[in-house]
Amino acid sequence: MSTRNSLAFVACLLASSAAPALAQLDGQSMHITFPEDSPLTVLAANWGESTATPRGGAMVLDLHTSLTLRNAGQRRIRGVTLQVMSQEVTPGGKGSTTVCSLNIGPGESFPVRIDLRLLRPLHAAGGPLVEIGLDGVLFSDLTFYGPNKLNSRRSMTGWEMEARRDREYFKNLLQQGGASRLKQEMQATLARQGERARNDMQMARLGRATALEPERSVQFTFLDMPDSPIEARRASGRLAGDEIRAPRIELRNRTDRAVRSVEMGWVVRDRNGSEALAGMVPAEVKMRPGGFAELNPGGEGLRISRQGGQKVELDSVSTFINSVEYEDGKLWIPARDAIASKGWSRLIAPSPEEQRLVELYRTKGLQALINELDKF
Amino acid sequence: MTASDWNRSHPSEETLALYSGEDLALWPALLTRWHLRSCPDCRHIVQDFQSGSERLAQEMLTLPSALEMGRSWDSLSREMAANIRLGLAAGECVTPVAPSRSRSLAWRMPAAALATLAVAVALLSVHWMDRPQPSTTARAARGARTFAVQGSLPAAKGSPAVDLRLAASEDGISLQGQGASFTLLHDSGATKDSRFYTSSPDSLRVRYVDAKTGQVTINNVYAE
Question: What was the ipTM of the complex prediction?
Answer without folding.
Answer: 0.86
